[in-house]
Every structure is written in structure tokens, then in C-alpha cells.
């Protein structure tokens, strides 16, 4: 029971993938910014209500402006600090404010309907676990605040209080039911997709093993032939073995990426320089020229806590993306076209990938860390950078990108020094 509660209730609360999408955040921000001043005008001058407060309306409108103005709030998935900030703003503008106004207006029909709408909106806005915790806490704090600091207003009549309680309980129950079904469906679809990718990648091992056997057979046959035939057979065997090695490496990457929602929690003390140099040494470059274009510079090594296997995958993903961008630039690669720099300053260390590839537009930069979004629509599955972000965030680090079309890209990984 404890394991189920941790996996299904507590863990998703900290899972940034389940937080609101950027479009929902922007929509709520716009509605909050415009809606509160408009509601104040309506409830004061057109359809007067027992209680209105200009200060609270302005404060809520400013919260909506913050949702629109703070760039970190619309990243997907948000970082830990941004996620906490978003939850606080949603909590303040929805369950706390609406419950406070409900009590201040003596449970009037207007605010009964507003509370019912708030409950349904809150559960559709974010994950049901977050909404349940936020609603419970918001209503309780608003009730305590009203009981101790609220204005002198007519209390909610006992009969009205019971009727309103039944209506709100029904809305709350339906919000939980709809939220649970939507959340479970979303998680099942994601896990099913990831499992299918892992199975397909695993099944590719069989034909690759056959190709490797053919390569070994060609290599063993080569000495029996002389001159150009022997050289050609050896070259074919070498190319086949390199192809198999490359494909096996790609399969390992895809199978690791497919564990996006189930990352290992083990942490080791890792050397950034050693990690990068080993990953580059083991990377299956397609040619010697491709290998020569990668330059690693270590200004100052640093250590951090993380998983050796997962962070090696991060380096592989970032290297693969940079090399793909360079290949699409239609220019001969030169040493330093992919520059990987390692350094530390104070409590933070950096691993910076700078490439001279095709780059990307600003609107794409805001989405590249979303699961299943890919700039390479031909072969990309959109999990590589999402995987990188989750691994880095699990180590209390950050990853960001700076790029422009036809001017390459710079990916900066920052990690706390251990």
C-alpha cells in the first residue's frame, strides 16, 4: 500500500511531465489577467454582489500577468522551481481566492456556481493529485482566513450551507473521477508507446546478429582470395561490422530513452571530464572525418552526483543531435565544428556543446524538451532531449539551449559540484 501510494500519488506530484502544458498556462494567465478586472466591474456596477474587493482583484490579475511574463513558467516540462511557482499561483488564484469570495458573499448563487466552475477548471488544468491537494489546502486556508480576518457579512444560512455543500461535493467528486481517468489514460498511452519502442528496438537485435555473422564470414573468406577481391571483401566486412556496431549503439540509446518515466535513482560521484571523454571515445562515428570534427576541451574538471549509465546516454544524445545538425548543414566538417567544453566556477560545473550546424528557430527552442517533439520529422522520435532534461534535473542540474537558424546551437548543461 505504501509503495502504491508513493508511486501513484506522491511521485506524480513532483513529476514535471504531469504539470500543465504551456498553452494551458498561457490561457489561464490571459483569463486571469482580463477576467478579474472585468468581473469586478460587473459585480460592482452592473450586477452588484454583497462583497467585492478591488485590491484582491488587482492581486489576482497580477498573478495572471506573472503567468504570461515569466518565461520559465511556460517551459515544458517546467523545472522544479518553476513548477513550485506555478502550483502556488494556481493555488492562490483558484481554490484560495474562490473559497474566500464564496464565504465573503455568504454562499450566494453566483459564488456557488463560481466555486463549482473553479473545481472543474482546476482538475482539468493539472493532474488530479495536484488538484486534490491544492483544493483541500486552499479551501481550508481560505476558511481559516475568513473566520479570523474576514469582513462582517451575513453568514451562510444553515439550509443553504447544506445544499451548497452537496452541489460542491458532487462537482469535486466528478472532478476527481474525470481527472483520474484522464491521468491514467495519458500515463497508459505514454507507457505503452515507450514499451512498444523498447520492444521494437530489442527485436532488431536478431537481424543485426545475422548481419554480424555475415560480416565475420566475409572476413574469414577474404584470405582465400587475392588482390583486389581480398581487399574488397575485407572492406565490406569492416563496413558491415561498423554498421552493426552503430545500430546496436542506437538501439541501446532508444531503449534507454524509452525508460523516460522509469529512470534509475542510483547516484555515483562522477568526473565530468572522464564521463565526456569516455562517451566520445566509445561513440560509433560514421567516419574518421566525423570523429575529427569533435573537439573536447577541459578547462577545469569537476565532480557531480549522478548515474554513470544515464549521463553517458545524455552525452551520446547531445553528440548525436549535434552531428545530425552538422550533417544537415551541407558543408564539409572541420575540427571544432562540434566543441565540447568542460569547466567549473564556484558551486556549479558546466558541460557546453557548441556546434556549427543548421540551428533552429526560437519557437522550436521552446519545445525541443517536450516528449515526442522532434525537429527531425523523418527519423526523430522526440525522446532524446526529454530524456536528457529529466536525467539532468534528477541530478539537480539544468539544461538550456541557445540557437539561431543557420548559426548553430549551444546546449549548456549545469550541474552542482559534489
From TrEMBL:
Enzyme class: transferase
Protein keywords: ATP-binding, Kinase, Membrane, Nucleotide-binding, Phosphoprotein, Transferase, Transmembrane, Transmembrane helix, Two-component regulatory system
PROSITE patterns named among the record's database cross-references: HIS_KIN (PS50109)
Reaction it catalyzes: ATP + protein L-histidine = ADP + protein N-phospho-L-histidine
InterPro entries: BphY/WalK/GraS-like (IPR050351), HATPase_C_sf (IPR036890), HATPase_dom (IPR003594), His_kinase_dom (IPR005467), HisK_dim/P_dom (IPR003661), HisK_dim/P_sf (IPR036097), Sig_transdc_His_kin-like_C (IPR004358)
Pfam families xref list: HATPase_c (PF02518), HisKA (PF00512)
CDD domains: HisKA
EC numbers on record: 2.7.13.3
Transmembrane feature ranges: 27-48, 54-74, 81-103, 130-150, 162-180
Organism domain of life: Bacteria
Record-given protein name: histidine kinase
Histidine kinase domain residues: 199-418
SMART domains in the cross-refs: HATPase_c (SM00387), HisKA (SM00388)
Matches recorded under Gene3D superfamilies: 1.10.287.130, Histidine kinase-like ATPase, C-terminal domain
Any GO molecular function: phosphorelay sensor kinase activity
GO BP annotations listed: osmosensory signaling via phosphorelay pathway
Amino acid at each position: 500500500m505504501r509503495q502504491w501510494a508513493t508511486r501513484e500519488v506522491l511521485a506524480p506530484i513532483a513529476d514535471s511531465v504531469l504539470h500543465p502544458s504551456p498553452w494551458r498556462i498561457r490561457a489561464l494567465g490571459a483569463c486571469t489577467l482580463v477576467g478579474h478586472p472585468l468581473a469586478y466591474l460587473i459585480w460592482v456596477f452592473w450586477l452588484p454582489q454583497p462583497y467585492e474587493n478591488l485590491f484582491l482583484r488587482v492581486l489576482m490579475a497580477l498573478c495572471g500577468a506573472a503567468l504570461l511574463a515569466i518565461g520559465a513558467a511556460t517551459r515544458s516540462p517546467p523545472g522544479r522551481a518553476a513548477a513550485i511557482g506555478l502550483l502556488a499561483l494556481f493555488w492562490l488564484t483558484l481554490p484560495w481566492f474562490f473559497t474566500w469570495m464564496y464565504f465573503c458573499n455568504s454562499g450566494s448563487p453566483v459564488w456557488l456556481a463560481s466555486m463549482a466552475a473553479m473545481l472543474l477548471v482546476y482538475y482539468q488544468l493539472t493532474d488530479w493529485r495536484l488538484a486534490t491537494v491544492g483544493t483541500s489546502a486552499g479551501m481550508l486556508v481560505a476558511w481559516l482566513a475568513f473566520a479570523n480576518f474576514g469582513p462582517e457579512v451575513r453568514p451562510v444560512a444553515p439550509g443553504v450551507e447544506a445544499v451548497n455543500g452537496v452541489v460542491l461535493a458532487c462537482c469535486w467528486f466528478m472532478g476527481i473521477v474525470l481527472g483520474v481517468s484522464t491521468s491514467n489514460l495519458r500515463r497508459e498511452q505514454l507507457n505503452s508507446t515507450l514499451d512498444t519502442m523498447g520492444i521494437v528496438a530489442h527485436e532488431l537485435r536478431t537481424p543485426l546478429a545475422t548481419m554480424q555473422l555475415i560480416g565475420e564470414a566475409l572476413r574469414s573468406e577474404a584470405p582465400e582470395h587475392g588482390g583486389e577481391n581480398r581487399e574488397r571483401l575485407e572492406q565490406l566486412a569492416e563496413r558491415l561490422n561498423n554498421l552493426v556496431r552503430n545500430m546496436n549503439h542506437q538501439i541501446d540509446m532508444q531503449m534507454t530513452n524509452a525508460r523516460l518515466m522509469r529512470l534509475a535513482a542510483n547516484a555515483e560521484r562522477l568526473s565530468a571530464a572522464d564521463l565526456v571523454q569516455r562517451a566520445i571515445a566509445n561513440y560509433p562515428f560514421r567516419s574518421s572525418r566525423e570523429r575529427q570534427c569533435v573537439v573536447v576541451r577541459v578547462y577545469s574538471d569537476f565532480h557531480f552526483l549522478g548515474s554513470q549509465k544515464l549521463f553517458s546516454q545524455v552525452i551520446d544524445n547531445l553528440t548525436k543531435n549535434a552531428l545530425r545538425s552538422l550533417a544537415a548543414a551541407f558543408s564539409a566538417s572541420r575540427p571544432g565544428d562540434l566543441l565540447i567544453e568542460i569547466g567549473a566556477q564556484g558551486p556549479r560545473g558546466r558541460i557546453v556543446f557548441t556546434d556549427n550546424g543548421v540551428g533552429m528557430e526560437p519557437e522550436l527552442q521552446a519545445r525541443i524538451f517536450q516528449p515526442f517533439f522532434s525537429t527531425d520529422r523523418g527519423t526523430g522520435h522526440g525522446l532524446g532531449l526529454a530524456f536528457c532534461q529529466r536525467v539532468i534535473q534528477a541530478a539537480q542540474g539544468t539544461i538550456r539551449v541557445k540557437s539561431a537558424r543557420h548559426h548553430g546551437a549551444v546546449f549548456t548543461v549545469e550541474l552542482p559540484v559534489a
